[in-house]
Amino acid sequence: MARSVEREKRSKHLTEEWVGRVYTLICVGLLVLTIFSMVYFVASKGLSTFFKDGVNPIDLFTGVKWAPEGEPPLFGALPFIVGSFSTSILAALIAAPLGFCAAVFIVELMPKFGRKVLQPVIELLAGIPSVVYGFVGLSVIVPFFRDIFPGQGLGLAAGGVVLSIMILPTITTIATDALAALPAGLKEGSYALGSTRWQTIYRIVLPTTLPALLTGIVLGIARAFGEALAVQMVIGNAPHIPTSLFESASTLTSAITLSMGNTIMGTAHNNALWTLALILLTMTFVFVFIVRWLERRSKV
Amino acid sequence: MKARTVDKIATGIIMAVAGFIILLLAGFLAYIIVRGFGHISYDFLTSPPQTFREGGGIGPQLFNSLFLLVLTMMITIPLGLGAGIYMSEYAKPGRLTDFIRLTVEVLSSFPSIVVGLFGLLVFVNVFGFGFSLFSGALALTVFNLPLMVRITEQGLRSVPREQKEASLALGISKWKTITSVMLPMAVPVILTGTILASGRVFGEAAALLFTAGMSSPRLDFGNWNPLDPTSPLNPFRPAETLAVHIWKINSEGIAPDARDIAAGASAVLVMTVLAFNLIARWLGRLVYRKFTSSR
């Protein structure tokens, strides 16, 4: 009698354990399945431009004219690729020094005020929806540029500035963590040798935290590269390579956002948009691997 | 130049830059709220939008955003908790686990527009859900799942090891240990993270353009039958959320007061996100105190 109760308890435990294991395994399985199907679907759609519609990949990557409905249709995606890279790199060029200064301010100069006020506000900025950035860009930055520079104000510069505010939290948070995690002995040693604070920051702190700082910058560029709506609202959406920063341009994301809804699935134009998405996807992988490489470096 | 002078100059520059950032951020938040606040009224928050005339509101959009958030969280939380528990408790260190970790990392850095396109292809077309709240919720789940997994892992890792070992030593099964000993202790971390993730879902637009759609059918707020196409509760109707609405009226709005509506809607969106942030911090602290009986 006692034995059967024991066995029943045991089997109940085993079922419980089994249920938990299977449930969590299903969840993880779904997660992995999702990413594989995502890569598969985007790749199969994106590659059909080359295989089904017979577009030469070299033409696509080097062509400067995008006229998918033209006669003959032209699929030169270089303007979008250039637009995406230049806006995100411009954003990083603006945000990286700002983020580094903010991190130094928070960790080294005024820790109390920085941690209590600046850091929470910057983190808050990370949660603000991208359409709001786009709206502010459109109603403040674009008119500002229109007044002082030639052109309509829409363009790479407006896109870069909006993106730089968007990626500032990413860069600052990672830089702050890196500076705070630096062993105190390093800094104290430098001070003991009589160096000033700036010498310590410039000669000791910056070189040792460089891989981590670069990680933040790459993550920021990755975010800027994939951002769609905020950029689309302020960049002007002209599908050509601009000659100045204040001339209307396009990015990969803005081209997809604008045209995807107006094209029919399976047409050459639609497939070409999927190819742009495939380029975005590939760049995501590239960014993830750069980040992993940098993280390995920073551990050594 | 003397090292001390350089130090002073550099400190001055850093202070100036920090001051500039603070001004910039304060100005940014103040602009959104001040610019939009005057336009917010009860009428604005409840009435439907107008295409050509002035005085359109954001009532249906606001409802859609909230409803979509609930739907998304109903799918994301069980899946994310499960996957997070697996990653932190069941996964054995090795190649497979490293690979899954890489997968989660890649998934979390996919551009949201690509997630939206995937949703368009798979949920809208292949599964045939059409442009609907449900497709939108699934797309947002894909977009949010990696974050949820990371939050769960963080939460479970914050549980002291002794607590877990004591439970296991009592002969309690691993699953029971996780669900009734570890999860309750991890709740503060998980709750805070989840609310912050909700803020992200609430403001997301790019992933929704091609999944939940850019139009909202005429809704009858007296009809609460979830199967009726005009009912607000029907998950298989197309729905434009607040964030999508802001994008749409900024790029193709033709109502004379489109800018004011965009400003008002942006202010509502930002204040909601702020509220999510404050609630997350406050609730996290409160629950932590309750569960650990510390002060």
Quick overview:
The complex is a heterodimer of chains A (300) and B (295). Chain A is mainly α.
What would you say this structure looks like, in words?
Chain A is mostly helical and 300 residues long. Chain A contains eleven helices and two strands. Chain A has helices spanning 2-51, 57-62, 78-109, 111-126, 130-148, 156-180, 184-192, 197-226, 229-235, 252-259, 268-299, and strands spanning 66-67, 74-75. Chain A has a two-stranded antiparallel sheet with strand order 1-2. In chain A, strand 1 and strand 2 form a beta hairpin. In chain A, helix 3 runs antiparallel to helix 4 and helix 4 packs across helix 6. The longest helix of chain A has 50 residues, at 2-51. The radius of gyration of chain A is 25 Å and the shape is flat. Chain B is globular. Chain B has helices at 3-37, 42-46, 59-90, 95-109, 112-126, 133-157, 161-169, 174-203, 242-252, 258-292. The model of chain B has no long low-confidence stretch (mean pLDDT 84). Chain B is an all-alpha fold. In chain B, helix 5 packs across helix 6 (133-157), helix 6 packs across helix 8 (174-203) and helix 9 runs antiparallel to helix 10. Helix content of chain B is 72%, strand content 0%. At the A-B interface, helix 1, helix 3, helix 4, helix 5 and helix 8 of A face helix 1, helix 3, helix 4, helix 5 and helix 6 of B.
